[in-house]
Amino acid sequence: MPPPLNHPSLELELLAQTFFVKQFPVDAGVPAAIASGLNAAQQTPGVFSITRTGEEISVVGEAVDDDGEWKCIKIAGPMEFGLTGVICNFTTPLKDANVPVFAVSTWNTDYVLVPKEKADAAVAALTKGGWRFRENSAAPRDA
């Protein structure tokens, strides 16, 4: 069971920028332009993830010129590894609101992408479900 939703590590932040999600065949390897983006992140820190499995390579990153198809909701973190049910409790209100998700987990926290046209519905559903957005979040205040 996760800590109460008012726990500081479970506060949410709707990030201002948009994001891209790309899929590549596993036998193609990581494209050089994508790999260079990982190294460039040292100069411009932000969310950038490459995940490789036996079936695919998935890449998530901040879009250039706000032309991404996704918005990102960050769970504040850091969270203890022993917490259970966080993603389940987070995605249930989104499922009920018919908002698809693409989740990326790190050691400290989770980043959940939602289609940008459903970002307001996601914020409203999560708020109704008891989740709190940080004051500096891009989430609308009246959600």
Automatic annotation (TrEMBL):
Gene3D superfamilies: VC0802-like
Domain of life: Eukaryota
Residue ranges of every copy of the CASTOR ACT domain listed in the record: 69-127
Signal peptide: none
Natural source organism: Suillus subaureus
Full protein name: ACT domain-containing protein
Coiled-coil residue spans: none
GO biological process, one term: carboxylic acid biosynthetic process
SUPFAM superfamilies reported in the protein's UniProt record: ACT-like
InterPro entries according to UniProt: ACT-like_dom_sf (IPR045865), CASTOR_ACT_dom (IPR027795), CASTOR_mTORC1 (IPR051719)
